[in-house]
Structures
1.
Amino acid sequence: MLHIHNTLTRQKEIFKPLSPHKIGMYVCGVTVYDYCHLGHGRTYTSVDVIVRYLRFRGYEVNYVRNITDIDDKIIKRANENNEAYEVLTERFTKAMHEDFEALGLTAPNHEPRATDYISQMIEIIQKIIANGHAYVSANGDVYFEVRTFHPYGCLSHHDIEQLESGARVEVSEVKRDPLDFVLWKLAKPGEPSWDSPWGKGRPGWHIECSAMAMDLLGEHFDIHAGGRDLIFPHHENENAQSQAALKTPFVNVWMHAGFLQMDKDKMSKSLGNFITIREILRDHDAEVLRFFLLSSHYRSPLIYTEEALIQARQSLTRFYTALRFLPQAKKSENTTYEKQFIAAMDDDFNTPIAISILFDLAHEIQRMREKDRAHASSLAALLKYLSGIIGILQRDPEMYFQSGTSLDVEKIQQLIASREQARAQKDWAKADKVRDELMSMNVAIEDGVKGTTWKVVK
């Protein structure tokens, strides 16, 4: 049985979807004003594995991941660049898609943009006001009145009496209480704006997700996910305003990925200590980065270092070595590894344990390689099958060993052909010279029954 840790209850629970075979899942997406950093990669790779596994378990997953294409950061960056905000957001949306595709992330079923849901946001705000949980302030902005919603704090487990004004919330003279948060803000001169019952303006950040989630998944759905930094105030506010509007439950299971850290601090643009996904992919293979991101449980902190990426490369090399030079075969019916793998993933998507099972399987393949090649091949098919569930080990081994390099592949192949010719002519000195030249390029060659193969060594 699948167990998922629910942030709302702070415990693992048996997962019971609202519909027996269908799951509605919403994930807070990127605010597209800059390139995606590795913290984004950690969150969305974790979500990708969750979606893949739920589908493997037979669920039809309606996966929604939004795009925030209007907010203060976007307006500020567009003004700094002297460009229209639409041009800015389109450029970084394209870049986001490129980065996520490189990481092998499954595309969502729906990718709504906030600016396409303004009317739905206005409708929800009107319901919140009608239900007595929001007010129009003196300056025309609309605020959610936190103290009228008694369950506030249930998701983040904050006692609102102990929240310090100005520490984690925005203080404003026009708010009735420092905890109140904006639902609609009147536009300043020159800012993008939309018509509303309260004047031309734009939505607050939190209301966006409520509108998009309700429209695409319904008023009550199964899973809402995002990074741990969104628990408060974003998800707390989203949960409060949604329930205040509907007077019904909103989300059954809240899931949050742990921080990716640079040294002791979480990686974030606001702290200025971030590295972008595309920066890392200039020097490292994308599958190596994906493996690193899955090496820690999704709820645990993950510390980024160059050494950690080197270790990830070494781990993948062990796996691909086990798969190398074995003929294709039918997946082994040895269910021990498969049962252990599924048990690990059923325990709140525990990828580190699942990967340890894959290592055991790879070791068994190597042990059986000379004893029973047919059995080793069927175990290799099982390894590839199980690994595919979490999105790794799907390349031909030779493609992996030749990846992560900017070397001239055509030149390498020409040198190998030259060495083959020298060996055929028994010109061993020339053959050795070519091998040494390849080694100087960090290219190792291996002679086997199927000819000469090569791989990058670092």
2.
Amino acid sequence: MKPYMLIEGSHTALEAFESKVTNALEEGYTLAGELVTQAIGSDIRFYQPVILEDDYEDEEDDEDEEEDEE
């Protein structure tokens, strides 16, 4: 799985967007920021960043170990 994703959706398919976010959360992702909305003509787009917590924590641990070695 990707350590980070940007889930995109539209107000015309709001249920599909909500489903994508729900599925990501069930797979172990957590919200990684605020929901971003953007009006493009008559369409309103939604963008929700998510991050896979396990991978993020592993990267932080690796960085901490590198700092300890120095």
